[in-house]
Structures are given as C-alpha cells and as structure tokens.
Amino acid sequence: MNEKIYFIFIRYKIRYSHNKLKKYLSETMAILGLVGKPNVGKSTLFNAMTEKAVDIANYPFTTINPNVGISYITTPCPCKELNLKCNPQNSKCIDGIRHIPVEVVDVAGLVPEAHKGKGMGNKFLDDLRQADAFVLVVDASGKTDLEGNPTENHDPVEDVKFLLKELDMWIYGILSKNWDKLARRGQQQKNIVKIIAEQLSGLNISEEDVKSAINTLSLDENPQRWREEDLQNLAGTLRKISKPMIIAANKADHPDAMENIKRLKEEFKDYIVIPTSAEIELALRRAEKAGLIKYDRVKNDFEIVSDSLNEAQRNALEYIREYLKKYGSTGVQEVLNRAYFDLLDMIVVYPVEDENKYSDKKGNVLPDSFLVKKGTTARDLAYMIHTEIGDKFIYAIDARKKMRVGADYQLKDGDIIKIVSAK
Ligand SMILES: Nc1nc2c(ncn2[C@@H]2O[C@H](COP(=O)(O)OP(=O)(O)OP(=O)(O)O)[C@@H](O)[C@H]2O)c(=O)[nH]1
Ligand SMILES: [Mg+2]
After folding, report:
1. Which family does it belong to (predicted)?
2. d(CA 140, CA 40)
3. Rounded mean pLDDT of the chain?
4. 176-239: CATH class
C-alpha cells in the first residue's frame, strides 16, 4: 500500500469506526508501530491491545497488509481523588482508571536484508513510515529462527540487532537517494537541515530531529565532505531520535524465555525491555468478553464469574493465574503505557469548561482527556481544542487550585484546565 492510500486507509478506519475520536486523534496522532521478524506474536499483541481479531498463525507472513486499530493507555482518573462521578466523552473510565485511545499498527514481519526488498521488506518498512514509536517484538522463547520458521535455541538478541540494522538501512536508503545533488544544494544554500528534513518528511522526521542528529555527530559544516559512513551514522542517529523504541520480549510464558529475557536486558541497557505474553493477555480479554471472568487490571488478577466453565477452561485459567503471580502482569498494558509516557514523553490533561464542577457546558464531569507532549503549554492546548479558542486565548485556570495561569504555562500530568478565550 503506498503511503497516501495507507494514510487515507487509517483516516477511513477512524472516521467510520471511531467518529467521536477522530478530531482528538488527528490532533495527537501518536502512532505506535509493532515491528519484528515474522511469527513472533505481533498480531497476537495487536489483538490483545485492540480487541480485534486479525489472523494469527504459527508460520511466517501470516500478516501481509497492515492492521490498524485503537488501543488504550491507562492512568489514574482524577475522579477518584476528587470524589466525583465522571462522564468521559473521548475516553473511558473503568474503576477509576482512565483509558485513553491511541493508535496501533501491526505490520508484516521483517527478515534480514528487508531494506533491499527481501521478503517484500521495503514495502513492509513503508507501512511503518507514520509510526511515532516502535514496539520491537521479539520471540523470547527462542523457538523461531531469523526468518520466523520454527527452530530451537535461537538467540533473540540477534533479532534485535538485525532489526535495528534494517531500520537504520531503511532510513539510510531514503536519506542517501540523490545525495550528491542534495549535498551540493545544501552547501550552496546553507540549508542542509531543511533539505534532509524534506527528503525524510514521509518518515515523520522533523527539522528539529535532523538538527539534533547533526549536532550529536558533530558533522562537518560542508555536507559535501560527509562520507558514506557519516550518512549511515546520521541515519542511525535519526532513527534513535525520531523512532523511539521499546522491546517486547514476547512469549515470556514459555519455559525457555526467562534466560533470554535476562540476556536481552543485559545486552540492550539503553532500551526498555518488557517481558510480555500476548497470548495470555488475549486469553484474559477474550474470557472477560465472554463473561467468564472479571479481569482486574490494577491487581493483575481475575475472578471467575461464570459457573459454566469446563475442566479445560478452569485448568487454563489456573495456569494463567500462576503466570500472573510469577510475572506480576502480562506486560501488554505496560508496553502501551511506557511507550507513550516514557518513550514519547507524554502526559494526560483534562480540559473543562466549568472549573468548579470540573465539567463541560452540558455538565459532563471530566469529559475529555488529552494525551499531549510534555512541554505543551496552555495556549497549545487551546489550539488543540479549537483554532479559534487558540487565537482568542486570554488565560487559563488550573481548576484544582482555582488559579489563573498564562499562555506559556507548561501543563503537568493530571492537570484539569479551563481555557478562557475572548468571545
Ligand atoms: N507461547 C506463546 N505463543 C505466542 C504468544 N504470542 C503469539 N504466540 C504464538 O506465536 C505464533 C505467531 O503469532 P502471530 O501473532 O501470528 O505472529 P506475527 O508476528 O504477527 O507473525 P507474522 O504476521 O507472520 O509476521 C502463533 O502461533 C501465536 O499463537 C505468546 O505470548 N506466548
Ligand atoms: Mg502478524
């Protein structure tokens, strides 16, 4: 799917299945991309996150076309602390936990040399263009080889290494296209940062990112003097800056996974490595949907609420309970939350129209929760709500403290904010 059609595809899906979320998502639009070699559990993780039912199978390339879905990150809702009953409009509140929608993309698996087109790799890499952060999914059980075929004792550290290289080479391929011409123009016009950002704009890479990567590497002022190695380093640095990544060590329920997870954590100290069992999370969510259990996502435990379970279902649930006791959780929600809160450095704020009732004009208490970048100001938030409100911004009110704040006030996680604008 080319980029334009893919983008329309995403919009189409959101417009028709999540009409209410559309405006909000188009404002924030931080997309999480699930990336990894074939057969590691990307689609299982996607289904667990989105409660969709895309194909899952124990062979490579089950997924060919990207799957796009809505998942939720979770954070304590202020309704609890303020002892209020909230009526969320753009999100959900379950037992005092706010669930905020985010977008997740599951793509086909990547094999070594994907950037050269192996296994249709260049097409699949293209499907990741718009992602703002990646979840690098690996098979921690070591039961799949580099191409996703069943094997024994495969080292998932190798998978992370080759995947990082493929992503770097993918960016390098786009960056180095017509390089001599670009470097000459950049030198003549003294605007290489802008030229590179334009070349990489389809990858969601900004001028800021380019500037910061060039500074980090202390590259020569004259881009015509940059060697191939410099360009490769630039691609790698840009990947690190613009596509932050978390590692999901999946299939953690397998007995062989523990040892591999330890090694992944030791080898990739700069990355957040989270053991996950997509399969167990999916089983829990489906059991809950079928009315068999109540899944307590705070305590990471469940209660059986149906008396029509058969012996096999009971045994499976007991196995899951043991797993949760041993590992604390399935790791799936942690991947989502840490991707947005830690990798993308986002916070949650609650715009209201009545600072005393914490509500909108219709009386909905804490109606909206916005996921925004740390550093977002009161005026930025006004613009996210509506251009006109941004243009006519006068001041804002911190509803908890009933205190006025100015346009440049940097929002804090959990802030409840009223924007006051000229009529
Ligand atoms: N034990 C275990 N198996 C899992 C887990 N997650 C996925 N699997 C199994 O791994 C196999 C591959 O799962 P998929 O979700 O299709 O993997 P994928 O990465 O999307 O594969 P491709 O689309 O082919 O790239 C299936 O047999 C899943 O049941 C897990 O957490 N634990
Ligand atoms: Mg798949």
Report:
1. Belongs to the RelA/SpoT family.
2. 9
3. 92
4. mainly alpha
| Pocket flag, ligand 1, residue 38 (CB < 6 Å) | yes
Tell the CATH topology of 345-421: Ubiquitin-like (UB roll) (3.10.20)
Q: Is the CB of 44 under 6 A from ligand 1?
A: yes
Q: Which residue has the tokens 């993308």?
A: 344
The set of residues, in sequence order, having a beta carbon less than 8 Å from that of 38 and lying 6+ positions away, is 60, 61, 62, 108, 109, 110, 111, 119, 144, 147, 148
Distance from chain centroid for Cα 238: 18
Residue type, 377: T
Whole-angstrom distance, CA of residue 342 vs CA of residue 71: 17
> CB of 334 closer than 6 A to ligand 1?
no
Phi, psi of 41 (to 5 degrees): 110, 20
pLDDT at 23: 46
Q: Read off the tokens for 307.
A: 């008396």
pLDDT-based confidence at residue 123 (cuts at 50, 70, 90): confident
Neighbours of 244 (CB within 10 A): 17
pLDDT at 125: 87
Domain extent listing, the chain = 3-157+244-277+331-341, 176-239, 280-327, 345-421
Phi-psi label, residue 83: left if phi above 0, alpha if psi -120 to 50, beta otherwise: left
CA 57 to ligand 1 centroid distance, Å = 6
Please give the average per-residue pLDDT across 320-333, as a whole number: 97
Give the pLDDT confidence score for residue 120 in this predicted structure: 81
Task: Give nearest CA residue, ligand 1 atom 17.
Answer: 41
Q: Which CATH superfamily is domain 3-157+244-277+331-341 in?
A: P-loop containing nucleotide triphosphate hydrolases (3.40.50.300)
Measure CA of the first residue to CA of the last residue in the chain; give whole Å.
45
49, two tokens:
């996150």
- Those residues whose C-beta lies under 8 Å from the C-beta of residue 113, and which sit 6 or more positions away, are 121, 166
Minimum-distance ligand to the CA of 320? 1
pLDDT digits (tens, 9 = 90+) for 383-420: 999 999 999 999 999 999 999 999 999 999 999 999 99
Helix (H), strand (E) at residue 351 = strand 346-352
Q: What is the pTM of this model?
A: 0.91
